[in-house]
Amino acid sequence: MSVLFEHMGSLGDGFLVTLELTLVAFPPAVLLGTVLGVCRVVPIRPLRFAAALYVHCLRNSPLLLIMVMVVFALPYAGFTIPLFPSVALGLTLYFSCYVCETVRSGIAAIPPGQIEAARAVGLRFSQILREVVLPQTFRSMVQPLGTIFINLALGSALGAAVGVQELTGSARQFNLTFAQPVTSFVSAAIGYLLITLTAGLIIGVIERKVRIQR
């Protein structure tokens, strides 16, 4: 245990990398997922088909495979991206699919009468989305988006498989150096628990505030 306290900095660095990966990958995942969710409900068949194909292909692939493809296949296509952004991009692409389905479900839950009323007053499709549909959709998506955030934080552990020294990678390196598997990986588990519990508390606060405003 004394070894752990003496070298806590290495695990702390891994914790910060995990937190950075999560915070960097989640906002673009929400943005891309929202665009995909809208594409899945627009009355334009090619857009619906393209978004559905994207979602089905990535959701039915392992996250590790997506990361490996982004990290190692993109250079063959002429795109050289540093390792950290590559892992963040893989997380973004994968979890945007889940955001997409959440957005699509939220849009489907909007009462049709509201959309018809918006059309009756002369709002265009883009205005209906921006002013009527999406605000209500995001209010109903707080808890699902929080779950996606937590899953993304946990999924970032696969970054260790492609060389990113995030929390799991740091715990593995600590174990290889000092041969203390229980200490190293229990410490990593505590780090992930700290992230997920904090996220859960923040999500609960946001959800209550949104519910009061309705």
Query: Which regions are unreliable across 5 or more consecutive residues at pLDDT < 50?
Result: none
**Strand runs, count:** 0
Q: How much helix is in the residues? A: over 70%
Distance N terminus to C terminus? 51 Å
CATH architecture: Orthogonal Bundle
Q: What structural class do helix, strand and pairing data support?
A: mainly alpha
Any idea what the radius of gyration is?
Answer: 20 Å
From the spread of the alpha carbons, the general shape counts as flat
Order of helices and strands: HHHHHHHHHH
Averaged pLDDT, please? Answer: 84
CATH fold group:
MetI-like fold
So what's the CATH class? Mainly Alpha
Task: Detail the topology: elements first, then pairings.
Layout: H1 2-6, H2 8-39, H3 45-59, H4 63-73, H5 83-108, H6 112-120, H7 125-140, H8 142-155, H9 167-178, H10 181-213
Tell me what you see in this structure.
The chain is an all-alpha fold and 214 residues long. The protein has a single domain, classed as MetI-like (MetI-like fold), CATH 1.10.3720.10. It contains ten helices and no strands. The chain has helices at residues 2-6, 8-39, 45-59, 63-73, 83-108, 112-120, 125-140, 142-155, 167-178, 181-213. α2 crosses α8 (142-155).
